[in-house]
Amino acid sequence: MTPAKVSVALAFTVILPFFFAIAFAVLAGAPRARRPLAVIYSVAMVVLDVLLLEGFLANKKILGLGSLKMTKYGFPVLFFLLLVSAAVVLFKGARGGDERQEGLLTATVAAATGFGLVAVLSSSMIGFALLWEGATLMAVIGLAAHGASGFRGRLLSFAPWLGADLLFWIGVLLCRSSLKEGGILISQPLLHGTETQVEAIMILFLLSAVLRLGLFPLNVRRRLLIARCEGTWNAFFLCGLNVLLTGYFLLVTVTLMARLMTSDWSIYIALGGTLSVVAGPVIAARSKDFAGYLSGMLVMVGGLLVLCAGLFSRSGLEAFLLIMLTAPLALAAMALAGRRGHARVSGPAVVAGLLLGGLSLAVIPPTDGFVSRGIAALACLDKALMNPWYSLIAAFVLAGFGIAAYATFVAVPRELKAEHMPGVTREKAFTGAIPVLALLAFFIGVIPGPLIRNLIEPASLALFKSGFTGPGVVFYAGSGTVAKALAVYPGWSQAAAAFILACALGALLPYLFRKGTDKEAASEDRAR
Amino acid sequence: MSFLGKLAYLVLFPGLAFALFAGWFARAIISGVSISMSGRRDGPELASDIRLFGSPHADRPGSVAVIDWVAPALKLFALSWVSCAVFGFLPDDLPLVFCLLLLAASCDVALISFSGSENAAGEARWAGIYILGWLVPLAFILASVSLRTGEVRLSAIVAWQAAHGVLPLATGSGLMKASSIVALVAVLPVALGMAGLRPLGLNIFSGEAGKATGLTGPPLAESRLGRTAWAFIAPFLVAALFLAGPDNRWYYFVFWGLKVAALVVIFAVANGALPRLQEKKALAWMAVPLVLAVVSLALAWAGVTP
Known about the structure:
The complex is a heterodimer.
Chain A: H1 3-26, H2 31-58, E1 63-65, E2 68-70, H3 75-93, H4 99-121, H5 125-144, H6 151-157, H7 159-179, H8 195-213, H9 222-228, H10 231-260, H11 266-286, H12 290-311, H13 314-337, E3 343-345, H14 348-361, H15 368-384, H16 389-417, E4 425-427, H17 433-446, H18 449-463, H19 480-487, H20 493-512, H21 519-527
Chain B: H1 2-11, H2 16-38, H3 46-51, H4 66-87, H5 94-113, H6 120-149, H7 154-164, H8 174-195, H9 217-243, H10 252-273, H11 279-285, H12 287-304
């Protein structure tokens, strides 16, 4: 694709979500129009996504449209945001219920996608902040679209998010007034501002990201928010947009910290993240409902992002990017498949989504959940060679994986059995989007090479060149021993595929050649 | 061709076939010691387990019935991968090995969770906590070993020991040696828990507890084969992490075999001499390896800090 064609595709990608948002809002009362519209939106977004990917890979220089730039670290976020948006709209568009509310909620998803896309393409801090607020506004309208009853409670549960935005805005304005810098990534040397001002801005940015990701113990009311909102709102705004946009902003923040600060806060950031990596699964394991489980898993994902960001190492940065990009897929699949109140969608597609998404969140090989989190654990062991603190962090991270698996294997069966509980009603919906998201997450785990080689490594190198050393932070390039272990993952698809094939044969052969399912004989056997 | 090779490693050597064969030997030793010490018969049950493939299985209704068939196979091949990882035939970094063990153990929790039993949720919760009882100390032990050796791959740790001697006696400061010895002491109850042996292990596929899964026929057969594989993998992993010596000559396989057999005998004696602890007591005892593992990590930390 030529740069001109990429620019045209980018223009369509930026405009279409807003166009569709208006269409969804206007045609809300006509389900016959809304359903085809949802299908057209999803197909259009996926096609544009693929075209942009082709253009991104074919051209080495940074492409864009005016001031919107497809940077190496911004494009991967755009790519996955479009995928999640397409899946959620496809699911939502075909769902029954109160037509006006359903249409409005779908419209907010489309519009927030537009704001999110432009935000990650924006090269100015103020532009990013304004577009970030556009997405927040859509999230609030989405909360209102649930109906008047309970809106106050939902808004109250959403308050930490608004608080995070306030901190972010104070930081942006301070950055503008005291450092006199307007770009999203500020370069050295700083011509204005003092070290204290830089530290204050970084603290505000970091706190904003941590609050928005809902790290422990700042995850107050997160479970309530999930329980009170639609699966689609949770899937897109909480699991998709929030993880991707806040992750992107966290990436920008740690890059600024490395470039501008004269002190190294690496270990404190990593310890803060580790607390959530352990506390998240514990919250999930102790919860008695699916909302609590999802809330705990979100805390864990947020913790992992902060931990990996705090490592200031090549492997840590790559783990960060992998988690930020792939975790929304499994999380969104689980949020869509999960029960809300006494209503849920059902069927084999939901079962597949819950099982595959659960395997990914439980850090089970060879899912994407394992690959990204396994690299995160390796990154901690890598950094431990420099500072033994990180070996303790690595141990806690591995223990967190164990607790996450336990929480998942308790929560998912409970969710599947809830289908048969009295009072639980089945909702009709096109559930195909759920297994598609979960399968995508699964296949990224089996074949992570293309993602790592084409998106993760270029993004990592664009932010921190090899041998980068800031005023306070020395970016750790990694040891040879860990490099050997990490080198396996881009090409581990053969081992992963052999494992899956062996397991499939191990399950299928006894099933195909099983003796007749004589229930009496089986009961006797069981009694024996 | 490379793909077929990896499949062959997983299915034949050093994967499933090897792990089952070695596991059968391990169970034979455990059974012999158990009978001579307490008159209890703990196996080997390979023949009866295989016969179960021919018995009928009552399929449960609904999509979740797939768990009955998939989970035992996942468990078997996860353990096979661990066996391949020790030999360096498949990817073998420590987080991967940890997560493969996690997968193998989680399959049991999944089978109980999805069983038709009325108290499935409670039983699954217990089984899960029990598994965490040995998984969490293992996380600290692996971190300690990695810090001590500076390696993150299992085959590299084996190679490191080939150059420096078995881990507890390898070259290094006194603190480092103490760290490895404490980690070795901690890993023994962890391995007992993994293998499902007395006094700490949970055995959910035979006797009264076997009913927890509600499995019959081929899935039960595969699950029991998984237990046989655990009987070998647990001591094998301990040997690889702590007792691997020079491994560059073919006859060192014999030494490896003897080390694993010695560990199996130690486990068999514990299994034969001690009664199975009640769930809560066993869990309380699991705090001991956890404390030892943390101490081991602290000692390794002190050892590497200049």
